[in-house]
Structure formats: structure tokens, C-alpha cells
Amino acid sequence: GVTHGPLIHDRAVSKVQAHVDDAVSQGGKVLVGGQKMPDLGANFFQPTVIRDMTDDMKLAHEETFGPVAGLFPFATEAEVVKLANAAEVGLAGYFFSKDVQRCYRVAEALEVGMVGVNTGLISDPAAPFGGVKHSGFGREGSSLGVEEYQITKMITLGGMSQPLQGS
């Protein structure tokens, strides 16, 4: 029955609280959660959903690394992809759709290292993990992650028409 655990340290809890407070101060409305959970421990924060988000809020531009989901209103695919791609970070993006063509269009257009379509669970040891922009460079995990520890060298030799020495 457990779905969420503590954040990594008190600074992470403070950052989550700051992002929630910033959203609320700029017109965001907390639908659920939004509070620390000291009765469970110092590093617990309620899973939180905030509506009426705008691109001026910290949640739109900074990685929160906490249980907060901001709901941003939009009218078109292009509008929401532009909003998502405006962030300087790009670890992962998630969206839900029943339209298979939309799934491919939006997933390809998102500037993130990983995309979850119709799921929030995208990490797997067999899959490459990593982001783009300020969220990192390269991948870890999977057979692709091994490439980060390899050095590829290409050697081209000319003048190979000579006979063996001593022949």
C-alpha cells in the first residue's frame, strides 16, 4: 500500500515547499496535498496537485524532484509542447493520450531525455536513463549506458600497398 517515500534531505523538502508556495502566490490552486508531513518524518511531503499553473512559476522552469504535479491549461499540442520545451531542464516528460498519432507527434517534439506516454513509470534497468539541456548529458543503464565508459577510436591507414619487410 506504500506509493511514496521521503525526499532525500531537508533541502529537497524546502525546495518542494518553495515551489508550492511560489505557485500559490501567483494564483495556482492546490487541489490536493501541499503540506509537509512531519508526523511521518522530517523529509515527507504530501503528493500535491496544483491547477491554474503559468509559465512564470518555478514549477515551469526548475526541476522540483518532489511529489508535485502542476496542471497547465493549454488549447493546442503546439502550445503545450512550446511551454514544456521552454524549460532549461529536460530529464523526462509525461503525457496521456488515446490518439496514437498524437503520442508520436508529441513524444518526438518534447525536448527531454525520456518520455512516458500513458504511464508515470518509465525507469527500468534495461532502458537508458538520462536527460538533455541542464538535466544532463549522456545516458546510464542499459547497453547504451556502457558507451559512456568506452572510447571509440577510428584509425585510417594509407600507403598500404608496400610489400612486407624482408620479403
TrEMBL record:
- Domain Aldehyde dehydrogenase: from-to ranges: 2-154
Entry-linked Pfam families: Aldedh
Q: Which InterPro entries match?
A: Ald_DH/histidinol_DH, Ald_DH_C, Ald_DH_N, Aldehyde_DH_dom, Aldehyde_DH_Superfamily
Name the domain of life. Eukaryota
Q: Which GO terms describe its biological process?
A: gamma-aminobutyric acid catabolic process
Protein keywords: Oxidoreductase
Q: Which GO terms describe its cellular component?
A: cytoplasm
An annotated Gene Ontology molecular function:
succinate-semialdehyde dehydrogenase (NAD+) activity
Coiled coil (residue ranges): none
Which residue spans traverse the membrane? none
Q: Which PANTHER family match?
A: SUCCINATE-SEMIALDEHYDE DEHYDROGENASE, MITOCHONDRIAL
Q: What is this protein called?
A: Aldehyde dehydrogenase domain-containing protein
